[in-house]
Specification:
The complex is a heterodimer of chains A (341) and B (266). Chain A is built from 15 helices and no strands. Chain A has helices spanning 7-26, 34-41, 49-83, 96-108, 111-114, 124-148, 152-175, 179-190, 198-217, 219-225, 229-234, 239-261, 267-279, 284-307, 317-336. The longest helix of chain A has 35 residues, at 49-83. The radius of gyration of chain A is 20 Å and the shape is globular. Chain A starts with 6 loop residues before the first helix and ends in a 5-residue tail after the last helix. Chain B is α/β, with parallel strands linked by helices. Helix content of chain B is 29%, strand content 27%. Chain B has helices at 52-59, 82-86, 104-109, 124-136, 152-165, 182-199, 210-216, 233-238, and strands at 8-21, 24-32, 35-37, 41-45, 67-72, 75-76, 89-92, 170-174, 202-206, 219-223, 228-232, 251-254, 259-262. Chain B has a six-stranded mixed β-sheet with strand order 7-8-9-4-10-11, sandwiched between helices. In chain B, strands 1, 2, 3, 5 and 6 form a five-stranded antiparallel β-sheet that branches. A two-stranded antiparallel ribbon of chain B has the order 12-13. In chain B, strand 8 (170-174), helix 6 (182-199) and strand 9 (202-206) form a beta-alpha-beta unit. In chain B, helix 4 packs antiparallel against helix 5. The interface between A and B is medium-sized, with 30 and 34 residues.
């Protein structure tokens, strides 16, 4: 839409992603020198086997997960903000994450209610499936409601109501559960970027890519939605169809992310605003890649912070994103005084 | 007066407009038979709540008619899909735009969406159309501003430029001068008049600037409680059709001045 180029910003941010990736991979309970990390990536077989395993099977998948989660949640947030033309929208506000939570809660906590007929006992796959089903169901309910009410504000409130509703069910389930089950659920809700095998990561990446490619097909309706639905329709956009595609992509991305990494807060709401500030544009052709890269950077930084305090333990990623995300958004708001969709 | 028959771009046949709520029908106006020629500037007049917006929404397919039909370029409106309609009819609405960081150029460029490919890339021809629209509406100096920085008058010109860039035979504007002072209202009317003359597009506006409309536009559509009249302004005045627009005790039409004036006895 505009001839102004953003090449410089994009190159700088991409360099930052690569740099942070290396920093991220170099941190952990076992310290491995930089030159050996390079050697491992260059296929040097002489480096210690245990180091190779740590880098290739633990730290690299974790860094990739951080990039996928960061970019995916941020894009979802951007789509929601544009679709609802509300700067406060995000995948969390619409109850997608609470849907995932209820799915996982039913799986882990519900076993005391329903016995263990729920096929696989809380393996990472069954958690992923339960969480996807949960977010799909809650999001479908929100979409159905969205088709009934025209007012976008009401849709956000409906999303919040679904959130409270599921939180209540989870409380009831927790009340009747064993301490050990509650602990397992709480650990899931902390969010985690690690623990993914290459098999799981392959599934993650495949589903993520479907959503990511889909995003580029809806640049046009997203841009016209910046004028509101009536103008978008008068520009030839099929509003109902676009709305369903946008919600489907969001639920796919957020669903798969929450399935593998737990409900990671704040990224989806905050990162699009950081990208909008850096790039000062509303054109989605620029904003989508910008938001994706910024999201990857932010989550890599959060993961680095999570590993900093002690060598033995890592802090829950969900705490870090909110702990650092909230002040950043407050600071941005005070400085700029205005948030754009 | 031009007697050669011009092409009719917009026509309504026995059109009844209103709202259908569950089982009750609320008829706003019925049996409308309007025929609008290409290259005319038309103002839709009527008091608040009489149904001007309903009529505009019906002829732009935002809302459905209760019965009858609307024909745009000889094709029934219900046979148009969104995209096809977007190349024949464009809108300028009164509602506020959501707060985004769009620049004026980007906003006007969105008017080319019905013609661009899936990633919204602008061709040379698209750019040419955008620049023509910018030139005709005299907003070139605002091109790189964000739209939220503009005054109401400037924003209105930019929105008109966007509709022009959409390059449709018909442009419908819902109260384009609602937020403007007298001076800017006059300038917008003059701009629209010039656009009709230079581009031969058909422009339909709804407005409460009745005296200005009588002076400037080519034709009027007058909605009153009892009937809807349409035709050339001078003919309607001649036939005393404007007299019933408002309750006579307060406002009356002065035929000599061609203007509405506040009734003396008040």
């Amino acid at each position: 839409m505009k001839n102004k180029t953003y090449t410089k910003q994009f190159i700088l941010l991409l360099i930052l992603v690569v740099f942070l990736c290396f920093v991220n991979i170099s941190l952990g309970s076992v310290s491995i020198p930089f030159k050996d990390i390079f050697a491992i990536f260059l296929g040097d077989e002489t480096v210690k086997d245990s180091w190779q395993t740590i880098i290739l099977n633990f730290r690299l998948p974790k860094a990739i997960t951080a990039i996928l989660v960061g970019s995916g949640l941020s894009i979802s947030g951007l789509l929601m903000q544009t679709l609802f033309r509300n700067p406060l929208a995000g995948p969390f506000v619409l109850g997608i994450s609470s849907g995932a939570s209820i799915g996982v809660a039913l799986l882990i906590l519900g076993s005391s209610f329903f016995g263990s007929f729920l096929f696989l006992e809380s393996s990472s796959w069954s958690i992923a499936i339960a969480s996807s089903l949960g977010s799909f169901l809650v999001l479908s309910a929100v979409i159905l409601a969205a088709n009934k009410v025209r007012n976008t504000m009401s849709i956000l409130i409906i999303g919040l109501m679904f959130g409270s509703f599921t939180a209540a069910i989870i409380s009831v389930l927790s009340y009747f559960s064993e301490a050990q089950q509650i602990q397992q659920y709480v650990f899931w809700s902390f969010g985690s970027l690690g623990n993914l095998s290459w098999d799981e990561l392959t599934v993650f990446i495949s589903i993520y890519l479907i959503g990511f490619i889909g995003v580029f097909a809806i640049i046009k309706p997203l841009n016209s939605l910046l004028l509101g639905e009536k103008y978008a329709k008068s520009l030839g956009i099929n509003i109902k169809q676009s709305r369903i595609i946008i919600l489907a992509i969001t639920s796919l991305l957020t669903g798969v992310i929450t399935a593998f990494s737990g409900p990671i807060a704040f990224i989806g709401l905050a990162v699009p605003h950081i990208a909008k500030l850096i790039f000062t544009t509303s054109n989605h052709k620029i904003l989508i890649p910008a938001t994706a890269i910024t999201g990857a950077i932010v989550l890599l930084i959060c993961d680095i912070i999570a590993q900093l305090p002690t060598v033995e333990y890592t802090l829950p990623i969900n705490a870090i994103t909110s702990l650092f995300g909230a002040p950043v958004v407050i600071w941005l708001l005070i400085r700029k005084k205005k948030m754009y969709i | 007066m031009d007697t050669s028959k011009k092409h009719i771009v917009l026509e309504t046949k026995n059109l009844t407009i209103g709202y259908q709520q569950k089982k009750t029908k609320k008829v706003i106006a019925s049996d409308l038979n309007l025929a609008i020629e290409k290259g005319t500037f038309i103002a839709l007049l009527g008091e608040n709540g009489i149904g001007k917006s309903t009529l505009l929404r019906t002829i732009s397919k935002v809302q459905n008619q209760l019965s009858g039909a609307v024909f745009l370029n000889d094709k029934n409106l219900i046979e148009y899909n969104n995209k096809e309609l977007a190349t024949n009819l464009s809108l300028v609405l009164t509602e506020r735009l959501p707060e985004s960081q769009l620049t004026v150029f980007e906003l006007i460029a969105l008017g080319r969406q019905p013609y661009t490919n899936w990633v919204d890339a602008l061709s040379e021809y698209d750019i040419e159309k955008i620049n023509t629209a910018i030139k005709l509406t005299e907003v070139a100096h605002l091109k790189d501003n964000r739209f939220y920085e503009l005054s109401d008058g400037q924003l209105q010109r930019v929105l008109i430029a966007r509709a022009l860039a959409q390059d449709t035979d018909v442009i419908i504007l819902d109260e384009p001068t609602a937020h403007l002072d007298m001076h800017h209202t006059y300038k917008i009317f003059q701009l629209l008049k010039n656009l009709v003359e230079t581009t031969q597009k058909t422009i339909i506006i709804s407005t409460h600037q009745i005296n200005l409309a009588i002076e400037i536009v080519d034709e009027l559509i007058v909605m009153t409680k009892d009937a809807v009249f349409s035709g050339k302004t001078e003919n309607l005045i001649e036939q005393n059709k404007l007299d019933n627009l408002f309750p006579k005790e307060i406002l009356s039409f002065n035929k000599r001045l061609g203007q509405f004036t506040i009734s003396k006895d008040n």
